[in-house]
Design goal:
Four copies of one chain form a homotetramer. By secondary structure, the first copy, chain A, is α/β, with parallel strands linked by helices. The first copy, chain A, is built from ten helices and 16 strands. In chain A, helix 4 (about 170-180) links the parallel strand 8 and strand 9 (about 185-190).
Chain lengths: ~350, ~350, ~350, ~350
């Protein structure tokens, strides 16, 4: 079977395709024929050699994937052959808080999903909603679970509350879509008129163009009659955090997501001390959160937003496309079909801000 | 100004209309020209003399009402003349848990809202959503806030979870409507085919006829693949609690609402010990919960279900109609217009079960 | 190696000692040389054939035990040979709520600890505090974790709050000892003057003799200036629940523990409807709760109360002694030493109330 | 009656003593004969003109005070003449989260307690524990309630968990004392050997000298076997926050307290992104938290640490002494007796770091 491995620190050029023998599941293990995977910022951090957690040498890349269980080992009780499953990025994080005991992760300290057949601990398998293809389900483990955790992992969002999302990356689009399932109002930001329309089509009640409205934090307060928002899904780090703090209501919640790069930026202590807010740094979420989220996605037949699909054979192009940035929703690599559109012409990363490697 | 007072323990026949001078608000008080009130089971308990909390002699009846602020006293800052407000049933229960310090209640230890002009503590006034008439807003203080508290007062309901509601009384219909704003699935019960259709029209995902399906608890488990429901809004007391316990999921929540009558029934201790659930007895909710709920109702333009509207002059008929039971949604008394339909012919309480006085 | 097995439904007379070969740990398994076990009411329910969860035929008895890890299987990372550990009664309940996925239990659907060597899933092993002997640590898994869960599993107990414990069984004595670590005030009940003194010596602020003060619920209210207690660890079922409800403060918490027998008793619905309390049925607790509790026990060098220790060879006497009831603290069976006192003379179960089999 | 007022922005030199007529309480007001007040950093910020919330012109200074109720207005039910009470700094913050509705504060937008007789809203009065003098009780409203909120306002601290406190200011010393009531382990920092002994005498399990151990964050991790602490009461702002972040356990809580000055410092975004922690900015706490804390203080007869007591006539000296910093515990101004020690010689603020005005 074929898998893409990483030469850590070498960037996308360090990705290599290797042939290995298909493994057989041992006790409490399962073997999944992978249908699709999706990419997250962590993949680029790992390739750059910047990731804050330990990475296995020559690791099989990519945390997020979905597929079909094709074999189970002794003692496996929660999953059967034929089940359609996604992999939880932290297979041992069953429930409760994140800890060093449960921080082993797929495509990190453990081999990942960019392989034809993935050998996983039984607990890694989470059933996927019936209405989702593998390409769609593969978008969930990292970005959607992070968004879910941001919305309800500490104090759950209530109907009628207001959420602020930033931009149109994977976590932000899921945060918008999921926040609507909670009955919340969503204010989104973007710098692009077309994306603004897409955000509104996904349910955003208001969209602010942060380029034409540089004081978008004030615009958020105006839209909330001066109160500020109850919840911010903050994915921008130093570039946005001070404004996010000013956009939050008294006792509002700010989830701090991403920011995995070597970042020497700073924020003003005064921006924090002028508030009465809660900030929570999030590490994706537990298997229990993934299962709870899937109940919501299944009930509402929510469809993840897939930006573009690449075939397994062109997986490296998918990484290049993702690194270039500027998409809307998730970048997927499929094992089963041709990409939804050809990757033609060189991608010009210099035209996309902030993702160059 | 005119008000309906109660001769406690004398039932509906003890209701008397009195003329008093219109009061002027003192410091931290407001005067509200009442637009409409709605009735709750507590009114009947009070009239019967069974209510568990102290009642003021010759009390002005009815906790729930909405209207317009027409005068404010010294030091009032949260409300202005002209504001459209509902009254919080426990005016001093601002936030946090219920306590003896905040248990004074309108239409109970304090005068209520079945009066042309109500003199209220400033904190009693809660702004009402713009899209609601006084008749609609008057349905909220007791039944809707109780339903809201049942759904999120302890551990908030999440999208994708399942709620069980019982019948089509005021709290149950609000619990159904509000649970849909939380993104939950709702299973409702009724014994009536027409009501079943109305419950579905309001969003119930499944409706079980508890008469034709006496083992409705098992039907609920079947509808949830054996898991049971995450939340029960239990309004039936001894008649339903054992089945509600069996219908609840492991670690599910059961909110215990109502049951205000002299009740000598019992439930089996074994029905509790066979579960791993949480039960919470609810006393309506705080002003903060009322305000949070109104944000949700306003955002979603949710419309309360009004069963029937009576004019102030025929208020006693409203009590008789409500006591007879069998309606769907809330019974309202308005100050401003004729009833939506004539009250013709004697109401036959003997034909309606369980509400005879 | 020797183990005690159960002939289910045959009571204590159905206990048999069998010799089996010592197993070797497979992947993610560990082998523990058991040092001591302790008994809980569940053991008697299982022997009687009344237990509400499935029991493995010919099960090795007893959920609670502690010992030393003597071998580990492939892939075991959390535990090393030589570690002193206790077994978590639900080895798969790592954290979060109880569920069907994590309800397999030692001495129930899985073999238990009344054996010289126990083969356990890796997750079952919880490190024990250094200051505890195996006899002491063996008392923790069921009774102490249940008490811990009762005190902080939902809304944590705060210093200055008041807890009510009932009697001097295993859970109640741990609830008293642990509640003092939370800085709470403890009111305990007993019917025995000598036990009253022991409860006070363990930190009880007040002890009520429920025999001489049959209205002990009123006595509890008097001791709390009419407020009632913030938390009840309710182990008495139908015999005490109505009074516990009356002893609880508004918004107080009542943890419902035990009551595993075939119980046809009832409680009055009116006793519930007259309150505004939360009741929570508890199924011991998770591995995470066990670990958190051990941190508290270790920091404060809390010593469990061991009522009496029997040698492994006389294990059946331990069951008889425990069934007879009337002890104070936990009954332990040790593998390592003679009992602390001889078991001389027949135990007279008819002198001990409520535990006859 | 005499009161000290502030000429805002003029610093301590702007404090003036004025004579006014003693007011009479109106409806829902009480009059308190003040026994003592205590000083907090907010007082210095207000005098400097830097405070982030609105300040009443010519405000009577100081939020924290305790005394005896000498008169009550119409409708007052919670307090009686003769009651010994402290004032809640936010009199309208009864319970629940902080909000613009409840942010009026004593010695800020409302007149404060540095007066012979304080006219207060009824809700401002919180009964004080019997074992405390007015001088001791006057230390509680701001510093102790902030510490209590830091320890249990979000997720309550549990016995066996570890708390980190910084230095020996008012909040930090209360955090240490209160954390011991929660059964927690406390690691404290200081730069002074004598203070180290005093911190240990108050219950600190470990004290780190941050001057001789500049990598005190690493020392904290070493003392917790690499885990880090569960809770940090962070009072140092930019000077300590990065280290506090590194000293916190995964999913640990950091309460952000104080930092009220014009602060242009920054912290590294990387210091946040390298963690999985929760940070919460705290604005003292609610009346309900004050009452709950007093139950704990009363049960355990906890004694606040009073650094020094000044007479009302020398109140300005108290401000100077407090501004100079370097004390241990709270600075108190009493109405009833001479200071515990003379204020002799000029205070040299240049010798004390970080508090010069």
């Amino acid at each position: 079977m074929k898998s893409y491995h990483a030469d850590l620190g070498a960037g996308i050029d360090g990705i290599v395709l290797r042939e290995r023998e298909r493994p057989a599941p041992g006790p409490h293990q399962i073997l999944v024929r992978v249908g699709a995977v999706s990419l997250n910022a962590r993949e680029l951090s790992i390739l750059r050699g910047y990731y804050p957690l330990p990475i296995k040498p020559d690791v099989v890349l990519v945390s997020d994937g979905a597929g079909e269980v094709v074999a189970i080992g002794e003692g496996v009780t929660r999953t059967a052959v034929g089940d359609r499953v996604a992999a939880a990025i932290f297979p041992h994080w069953v429930d409760g808080p994140f800890s060093t005991e449960n921080s082993a992760q797929l495509g990190g300290s453990l081999d990942g999903m960019l392989t034809e057949f993935a050998l996983l601990p039984e607990d890694a398998a989470v059933p996927i909603p019936d209405h989702l293809s593998f390409e769609e389900a593969a978008t969930l483990p990292c970005a959607a679970v992070t968004a879910w955790n941001a919305l309800c992992g500490s104090v759950p969002l209530l109907p009628g509350q207001t959420v602020l999302t930033l931009g149109s990356g994977g976590v932000s689009v899921f945060a918008l879509q999921l926040a609507k399932l909670f009955g919340a109002r969503v204010i989104a930001t973007t710098s692009d008129a077309e994306k603004s329309e897409r955000l509104k089509a996904l349910g955003a009640d208001n969209v602010i163009n942060y380029r034409t409205t540089p004081d978008w934090d004030q615009a958020v307060r105006d839209l909330t009659h001066g109160r500020g928002v109850d919840c911010v899904v903050e994915v921008g780090g130093a570039g946005t955090l001070e404004k996010s703090l000013r956009a939050a209501a008294l006792e509002g919640h700010i989830s701090l997501v991403g920011w995995l790069d070597k970042d020497v930026s700073t924020i003003s202590i005064g921006a924090i001390s002028a508030t009465v807010v809660r900030m929570r740094r999030i590490a994706v979420g537990s298997r229990a959160q993934f299962i709870a989220m899937n109940r919501a996605i299944g009930l509402h037949r929510l469809k993840p937003v897939v930006d573009r699909v690449f075939p397994f054979s062109n997986a490296v192009d998918a990484f290049r496309y993702y690194r270039a940035g500027g998409g809307f929703g998730k970048v997927v690599i499929t094992f089963d079909r041709a990409p939804s559109e050809p990757v033609d012409g060189p991608i010009k990363p210099d035209q996309r801000k902030g993702r160059a490697m």
